């Protein structure tokens, strides 16, 4: 039996490491063929604690080609630099998401790797595919967990499984508001 929690419980899983960063760290990830790269400039160590989430919605599973979902990180768009010198980035406009929202699913047109980018409803936030990076942090939470395949083991405790990512996006806008990120 899966437990789903409400948006009112979100503050217990998101904490900013330090609202006044002393230094930044840079992480670079690439698609499989290397045509597209993402550079993250973060005020914290990406691997020091769990980061990001796994989306188990059917559309993310199909987009990623994985039965266990797509590992993503939501962060301020200002912390993401996309490099696509050959113009390989393509975007599929998914109008059939479970949330009812239109989702732009960006990927490399050469090798097919999911990439990510700014959300359509909140452009100040980007969702990036963590599979682009050689090291992937353990996720903080899972969303659309009711659609997770039965045999998949959860990577987080039941109290951190959510049904809708919309709740999380709105919460994240509040988390980053006024932090300078």
Automatic annotation (TrEMBL):
Protein origin, superkingdom: Eukaryota
A Pfam family the protein falls into: GFA
InterPro entries linked: CENP-V/GFA, Mss4-like_sf
SUPFAM superfamilies: Mss4-like (SSF51316)
CENP-V/GFA domain sequence ranges: 27-150
Record-level Gene Ontology MF annotations: carbon-sulfur lyase activity; metal ion binding
Keywords: Lyase, Metal-binding, Zinc
Family of this protein: Belongs to the Gfa family.
Name by which UniProt lists this protein: CENP-V/GFA domain-containing protein
Organism for this UniProt entry: Cercospora beticola
